[in-house]
Design goal:
384 residues, two-stranded antiparallel sheet, 9-stranded mixed beta sheet
Length: 384
């Protein structure tokens, strides 16, 4: 395990050197030290400084010297760089292997509860878990799932304040343009992969914007109050659910399904797929290139990968345990968690263990953490 951690640290040091050439080595080592310490159950600079007997002021000073541009790039470039390796490996395989791995791009947001009121990007957002509005930071994310590996491509904090237009669909299009530009420079066309959304993002404006970007397969989870005309009957999807007949054992489908063409005053023409999931009838709206029902269902089954990522961020990496001030600090806090996730993912693949198993073992071996600090030369206090 020790060898794998050192190897992963060197890998990310090389990535930083490639994509952050103007970032000082001292800052890079501070970021990676904090990320490695997440594997040992140390989730913020205070805990790291206390455990390793390092000056706290030096850690905070290094983090505070990052610009807003570099702070935002922490959540974009490193994840995309790892995703490129996974995609190239998949595209070099046979057609059956590419089909089994089923690569989709997924979009969703989540709330990070916060207690302090002086942190940036904090507002009141509705939470399904608490069934009320809570004081939190809202994070909009784009992930890519390749087989059982979920890679974050871009993360952005959503603000309700500011002079510019900060609504989520507009922010999402900006994020997608950045991601597509990154992949284009590497010779990979991300547009050929399907993109999935929760029902909150359903709108004709977003579908048109995605089509203009070049996405050909768009899947959106349907809301009950979406009005659709199916077989000359205009009604809400909640009404159509009562009248449709789901068919068992359809080719390639492991759930009862029903497929229909629909016209919506909001979306225009689309394909609606009804399916039974955990006792409830749910709907899936398909736009762009027509997909087989089994294809659409397989792609949608991968959408839960972004939910897995949020769960890892909150449970395994304690994203709310780190609170740095200012806009730069908010993005640095999020970026450290994302990099920690990528390090854990890399070690998990090589060790064939879950995140929890890795952290459980290393938390019990926290005394060995001093062996790793020798790889961070610029932030070790010099002996007198």
């Amino acid at each position: 395990m020790r060898h794998k951690i050192i190897k992963s640290t060197i890998f990310f040091q090389d990535l930083f050197s490639s994509y952050f050439r103007r970032m000082r080595q001292q800052i890079i080592e501070t970021l990676l030290l904090l990320c490695v310490c997440h594997l040992f159950g140390l989730y913020n600079p205070n805990q790291v400084a206390d455990a390793l007997k390092l000056p706290k002021a030096r850690l905070y000073r290094n983090l505070g010297s990052l610009s807003l541009y570099h702070s935002k790039c922490l959540n974009l470039r490193l994840g995309c760089a790892m995703a490129i390796d996974f995609i190239k490996d998949t595209e070099s395989k046979s057609a059956s292997t590419r089909s089994r791995r089923c690569i989709p791009v997924s979009v969703d947001d989540t709330n990070l509860p916060r207690d302090a009121e002086t942190l940036s990007y904090c507002s009141n957002y509705y939470s399904k878990e608490h069934n009320t509005a809570i004081w939190c930071q809202n994070v909009l994310g784009i992930t890519l799932k390749c087989a059982d590996r979920v890679i974050p491509l871009d993360m952005r904090l959503v603000s309700k304040q500011g002079r510019g237009n900060t609504d989520k669909p507009t922010l999402l299009i900006t994020m997608l343009k950045e991601v597509l530009e990154f992949f284009d420079t590497q010779g990979i066309d991300l547009r050929k992969y399907p993109i999935t959304f929760d029902s909150w993002y359903g709108s004709r404006k977003l579908v048109d914007a995605l089509s203009e970007l070049g996405f050909t397969s768009i899947l959106v989870h349907g809301k009950n109050n979406f009005v659709m005309t199916i077989a000359d009957t205009k009604a809400k999807l909640s009404v159509h659910k009562k009248n449709i007949e789901l068919r068992e054992e359809q080719w390639g489908c492991d759930k009862p399904v029903c497929r229909a063409k629909a016209i919506s005053p909001t979306f225009g023409e689309c394909i609606v797929i009804f399916f039974r999931d955990r006792g409830k009838i749910r709907t899936l709206l398909g736009f762009g290139k027509p997909l087989r029902t089994s294809e659409a269902m397989r792609i949608w089954s991968q959408h839960h990968g972004i939910e897995q990522f949020w769960r890892y961020l909150k449970s395994n990496l304690r994203v709310s345990a780190m609170s740095l001030q200012s806009r730069e600090g908010a993005y640095v806090s999020l970026g450290i968690k994302v990099i920690s996730y990528l390090i854990l993912l890399q070690i998990s693949i090589s060790e064939r263990r879950t995140f929890h198993q890795i952290q459980l073992q290393l938390t019990g071996e926290r005394q060995t953490l001093t062996d790793f600090i020798t790889h961070f030369h610029t932030i070790i206090p010099k002996e007198p």
